[in-house]
Amino acid sequence: MQIIYRLCAMSKLQIFRLKSGLRSVDLARMLHVSRACICLAEKKGLRSSTAAKRYAAALGCNWRDLLD
C-alpha cells in the first residue's frame, strides 16, 4: 500500500525522469539548471508549456505528457 501511495504522490515529471533512469542531478545538468530547480519542478509539477517543452526534450517524451 505504501508504494502505491508514493507513486500517486509523484508528479508526472518525476515519473518520467525515473522511467528514463536519470537522477535529478543528471537532468539538471542536461537543462543547465540547479538540482534544486528540478526538485521544485517535481514537487510542484509543470504547468507551463514552455517549461514542459524544455523538460520533454531532455527526457525524450511528449511535452503534453508532463503537464500536471
Write the layout of secondary structure elements.
Blueprint: H1 2-9, H2 12-20, H3 24-31, H4 35-44, H5 49-59
Helix pairs in contact: 3-4
Uncertain regions: pLDDT < 50 for 5+ in a row? none
Helix content: 55-70%
General form: globular
Average pLDDT number: 89
Please compute the radius of gyration using only Cα atoms.
11 Å
Tell how many strands the DSSP assignment holds.
0
In sequence order, what are the helices and strands, one letter per element?
HHHHH
N-to-C CA distance: 23 Å
Number of helices: 5
Q: What structural class should be given to the helix and strand makeup?
A: mainly alpha
Main β-sheet description: none
Strand content: under 5%
Task: Jot down its keywords.
68 residues; mainly alpha
Please tell me about this protein's structure.
The protein is an all-alpha fold. It has 5 helices and no strands. It has helices spanning 2-9, 12-20, 24-31, 35-44, 49-59.
Task: Write a brief caption for the model.
With 68 residues, this protein is mostly helical.
